Known about the structure:
This protein has about 120 residues and is mainly α. The chain has one domain (about 5-115). It has helices at about 5-10, 15-25, 70-85, 90-100, 100-115; strands at about 40, 45-50, 55-60. It has a 3-stranded antiparallel sheet, with no helix packed on it. Strand 1 (about 40) and strand 2 (about 45-50) form a beta hairpin. The longest helix is centred in the C-terminal third of the chain and has 16 residues, at about 100-115.
Amino acid sequence: MNILDIINKFPNQESCIKFLEEIRWNNKPKCLFCFSEKVNSVLKESRYKCKKCHKFFSVTAQTIFHHTRVPLQKWFILIVLMANAKKSLSSSQASRDLNLRLATVWKMMHKIRKAMANDEIRLTA
């Protein structure tokens, strides 16, 4: 997969969230705390509320994308850039390519490397 594939497949935040929901829950959201499948959709940014334990959660909770302000499309692009780099990708270059602050990209790359070292991009609870 390359950058153009990512841009075409995930043109906006909603398409990225739908993809994560499909991979993580097979489009059937499950509470991350009590694992109940009885959840209500909350209109704000694809959040859910469990009917059993009454806690709020989203598809990005307990993943490397949790509490990020960076659009998921940029995360996906960075993952592809890192995976496709022959030797390594510098955070300075990625910062310029993604139009993000160097410190932000450095933290993102650190999280991605840690997830890759564990042989996972954490998408399951």
